[in-house]
Amino acid sequence: MAMTSEETLVQLNKELGEIRNAITAILGGAQEYRIGNHLVRRADLRVLYAERTRLEKEISLIESGGMFRTVYFEGR
């Protein structure tokens, strides 16, 4: 079953929030850290910035009503 535009918008905003949190964590010095013998490395900032931009564009497109508009022409 397909999601409604409202459900899609909620999901995209949730993902955008997660991306923003990841960017903030990396900028705060948490690019990588060690837990015992395991090294944990977060995503590359370039990848996160690209995904943030994609999500923002997709959200904007949905909020503006999509890429198609209804145009009315009045008589000549």
Short description:
This protein has two helices and two strands, in the order H-E-E-H.
What is the gyration radius calculated from CA atoms?
A: 19 Å
Number of helices: 2
Strand order of the largest sheet: 1-2
Roughly how many Å apart are the termini? 45 Å
Helix content: 55-70%
Shape: elongated
Question: Hey, roughly how much beta strand do the residues contain?
Answer: 5-15%
Structural overview:
- By secondary structure, the protein is mainly α.
- The protein has two helices and two strands, in the order αββα.
- It has a two-stranded antiparallel ribbon with strand order 1-2.
- β1 and β2 (38-41) form a beta hairpin.
- α1 runs antiparallel to α2.
- The chain is elongated, with a radius of gyration of 19 Å.
- The chain starts with a helix and ends in a 13-residue tail after the last helix.
- The relative contact order is 0.15.
Which helices and strands, and how do they pair?
Blueprint: H1 5-27, E1 32-35, E2 38-41, H2 45-63
Antiparallel strand pairs: 1-2
Helix pairs in contact: 1-2
